[in-house]
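Reviewers of the previous submission asked for a worked example of the structure-prediction workflow described in the proposal, so we include one complete record here. The input consisted solely of the amino acid sequence. No template or homolog information was supplied to the procedure at any stage.
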Amino acid sequence: MDHFLYNEGVLHAEDVSVAEIAAEVGTPFYLYSTATLLRHFTLFDEALGSMPHLVCYAMKAASNQAILRTLADAGAGMDVVSGGEYARAKAVGVPSERIVFSGVGKTHQEIHDALTGGLRQFNVESEPEMEAISEVASSLGMEAPVTIRVNPDVDARTHAKIATGKSENKFGIPISRAREVYAMAAALPGIRVIGIDVHIGSQLTDLAPFEAAYKKVADLTEMLRSEGHDIQRLDLGGGLGIPYTRSNEAPPLPTDYGALIERTVGHLGCEIEIEPGRLIAGNAGILVTRVIYVKSGEDRNFLILDAAMNDLIRPAMYEAHHDIIPIVEATPGAEPATYDVVGPVCESGDTFAKGRHMPEVAAGDLVAFRSAGAYGAVMSSEYNTRPLIPEVMVHGHQFAVIRARPTFDEIINRDTIPQWL
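From that input alone, the workflow returned the following C-alpha cells.
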C-alpha cells in the first residue's frame, strides 16, 4: 500500500495534487510520501515486536536527509555502507548506538571516523578487513564491536546483480570457514565479537531462501557459543521485495517475515537486527515526468519523456519494471495505447519500457513511475550534463523541495581548467 491515489481524477500524494507540485517545481522530479515511509517502517518494527530488535534502514536505497530524519525520529537505526553515508546519518542526529557499518571495502579512514564518531557495530566481510579494524582500533586505544558476515551459499532467486548470498558473490566469508575466522577475531587486539551477520540479496519474493539461510545461522550460533564466543546479536540483513507491478503476486508481508525470524532464530535469545531498504522506501516514492513528444515509428509509437536513464537507471541496468500511470486519471473504458517509453539521452539503452500498454497520453501530459523511491535518486547522475532532478517530500497537506535542481552554471562551475589552457 502507498499514499499515491487519484482524487477527483488527479493523482495526489497524500493530500497534495501531484500536478500542482509539478507546476511549481518543474519536471522531472522524485516525490516521496512521509505517511508511506512511516507505515512501512512500522510494519517491520511491529513484526519483530516480540523479540529484542532494531530495524536499521538500509540508507543506500534512498539517503536524502529528510527521509533519514523521518525514519530516525520514528526510532529506526541506519545501515551505512560508506563514510559518506555514515556522515549523513550523523548529520541528521541518528544516535551512534543505532548506526551499523556494512560494506566490503571499508577504508582505514572510514574505520577511524566511525570509531571516533561512535557506532553500534561493524559488519565485517573479510579477514583483511578484520585486521584493518584491529589495527585502527588498537591505535586509538579502543575496542571495536563487530559481527562477521557469513556467506551461507543460499540462492536468493533474485536478479544476478543483486544476489549476495551465493559462494560466487564477493560478500562475507564462506560459512564453512566461520569457526576459523571467529577464532582469529577472538585473538586480535581491539576487536570485540558480538554477533553474526548474514545478507543474501535484494528483492526477494519468496521466504524459502531466508529460511534456509537463517537455519544455517542458528546452527552456527550454537556451535560458536559452544566454543566460547559470546554471540549476542544476529544481523539478518534485508532484501524483502516489493510489488513493482499491480498484476504480480504480492511478495510476503513483513508479518510473515517476522514470524519466520522468530521460528528459525527466536529461541537463541539474541537481539535481532534487520536492514530493510527497498520495502521501506520503494513504494514511498514516484518519479514524475512530462511527455515531450509522441513519435510514430515504423512499427511502434515512442513516448519520449523529459526523464532519462540518468534519472532512473534501474530499467537500463536491471531490466526493471515500473508501472507508468498518467497524472490525470484515464477515462473509464478508454482504449489503452501501446508505447516504447524512452528518454532523451542519446543511447538506445535509455529505454524505460517496450511495448507498454497504458492509457493514451499526449505531448505535455504528466506521467508517473510508481515504486521509484528506492534506488532511484541515489543512483542518478549528470550524464549528458543533465542536472540531478529535485526531490520533494509530502507530509499531509504540505510539500517541500528536499533537494533542489542545480543550474547549468552550478554544474559547469565545478570544473577547474588548468593554468596551461
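The two ends are 56 Å apart (CA to CA). We consider this example representative of the routine output the project will generate in years two and three.
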